[in-house]
Specification:
two-stranded antiparallel sheet, 324 residues
C-alpha cells in the first residue's frame, strides 16, 4: 500500500505496524484486492483491508469490458463506502456486518479498513448449504430489510442489485429470449413501483455470507450494490445462488414462509411503523417477478450459465403471461 493508506490503517487501529498475512481474494475484473493484516501493539489483533485500485487495463472473465461496465464498478465502490460511513451503524447483531475502522481515498484508489469477521466468530465459508445456513441467511435478510424499510437510499444506488435493468442495457441488447426481452421494462417497472421498499443488499449470494462454525449465526459482506428496492430481489437471488432447481421448487414455499415470519418479528422488535400484512401481500406477489428479473439479466449476460434451468424458465413464463 502507499504511505497514506498505511498510515490510515495504523492510526485507525492504534497499531505500531501491520504485517500482511494473506490476500483473501482479488476483486472482480482486477479492481484491487482484499487483504488480511496482523496488527502489532494494537487492541485489535487483525483487520481486513479492501483496497480498490482502478485497473489500467480492464479485464472481465466474460468479456464485458466497456466504459459503462467501468463506470458501474467505480460507482459501486463509492456506494459501498457511503453505506459503511452512513448506514452500517444501524445494523445490529440480527443483521451482522463488519465494523468499519476507517476509510480513505488516494487519487482514484479507495481503502476500507474493516473488522476481521473470522476473529469475531464468523470464520466458516460454505459452498453447499444445510437448513442451518439457509435459516441464518434468510433471518439476516429479513432483519436487514426491516432495518431499512421505507428508508430513502441517499448516496446509494437508487435501485439496488448489480443486475438492475437501467445499468445493464448491453446484456438486454444481446438477449435472445424475445418474449422475455419484450417485457423486461415492464418487469423493471413493476419492481420499481412497489409501494413498500427497503435497502436490498444487492449481491446476497452464498459467497458473501460468513458463518459461525456451527452454521447458526451469519454475517454479510460486500455492499457495492446496496440500494432501494423490494426485499424479494435479495431472497430470490440468494435462493438461486445456493439451491438446485429441484430444491428451489421444493423449498420455495417453506423459505418464503420463513422469511415473512422473520420479517414480521423484526418489524415488531424494531418498531417499524408499517402494516406488515400489506408488506407481505405485495412482496409475495413480487417474488416471481424478482426471480424473473434476475433470470432476464443472466440469459443476456451468460446464456449457458448453470442457474438458467427449467424452474427459472417456468417462473419466467408465468410472469411473462401475467404481464401480457
Amino acid at each position: 500500500m502507499n504511505l497514506q493508506f498505511t498510515q490510515t490503517l495504523l492510526s485507525s487501529t492504534k497499531a505500531s505496524n501491520a504485517l500482511e498475512l494473506e490476500v483473501i481474494q482479488t476483486l472482480w475484473s482486477g479492481y484491487g484486492k482484499i487483504v488480511r493484516y496482523q496488527l502489532l501493539d494494537s487492541p485489535i489483533e487483525q483487520a481486513v483491508v479492501k483496497w480498490v485500485q482502478l485497473p489500467k487495463q480492464q479485464k472481465h472473465p466474460r468479456g464485458w469490458n466497456t466504459n459503462l461496465s467501468h463506470r458501474r464498478k467505480v460507482k459501486s465502490y463509492q456506494v459501498e463506502t457511503n453505506f459503511y460511513k452512513t448506514y452500517a451503524s444501524r445494523c445490529d447483531a440480527s443483521c451482522r456486518i463488519p465494523q468499519l475502522y476507517a476509510f480513505d481515498t488516494y487519487k482514484d484508489d479507495v481503502l476500507l479498513v474493516l473488522e476481521d469477521l473470522d476473529l469475531a466468530g464468523f470464520s466458516a465459508r460454505v459452498h453447499s448449504v444445510s437448513w442451518h445456513h439457509i435459516n441464518a441467511c434468510v433471518q439476516w435478510l429479513a432483519n436487514f430489510h426491516a432495518t431499512f424499510l421505507q428508508q430513502q437510499p441517499k448516496e446509494l444506488w437508487q435501485v439496488g442489485t448489480y443486475w438492475h435493468l437501467e445499468t445493464r442495457p448491453e446484456e438486454l441488447a444481446v438477449l435472445d429470449d424475445k418474449a422475455l426481452k419484450k417485457v423486461a421494462a415492464k418487469i423493471d417497472e413493476k419492481l420499481n413501483n412497489a409501494r413498500y421498499t427497503t435497502f436490498v443488499h444487492g449481491d446476497a449470494k452464498l459467497a458473501n455470507f460468513c458463518f459461525s462454525e456451527d452454521g447458526v449465526k451469519v454475517a454479510a459482506v460486500d455492499f457495492q450494490y446496496v440500494g432501494g428496492g423490494c426485499g424479494m430481489k435479495d431472497l430470490a437471488y440468494f435462493m438461486g445462488s445456493c439451491l438446485s432447481e429441484e430444491d428451489c421448487r421444493e423449498y420455495e414455499p417453506e423459505i418464503l414462509d420463513l422469511y415473512f415470519n422473520c420479517l414480521e418479528k423484526a418489524i415488531l422488535v424494531k418498531k417499524i411503523a408499517v402494516d406488515f400484512k400489506e408488506v407481505e401481500k405485495e412482496w409475495r406477489s413480487l417474488f416471481p417477478v424478482a426471480w424473473t428479473d434476475f433470470h432476464r439479466f443472466l440469459k443476456g449476460w451468460s446464456p449457458s450459465h448453470w442457474k438458467i434451468n427449467s424452474y427459472s424458465e417456468q417462473v419466467a413464463q408465468q410472469v411473462i403471461k401475467a404481464l401480457k
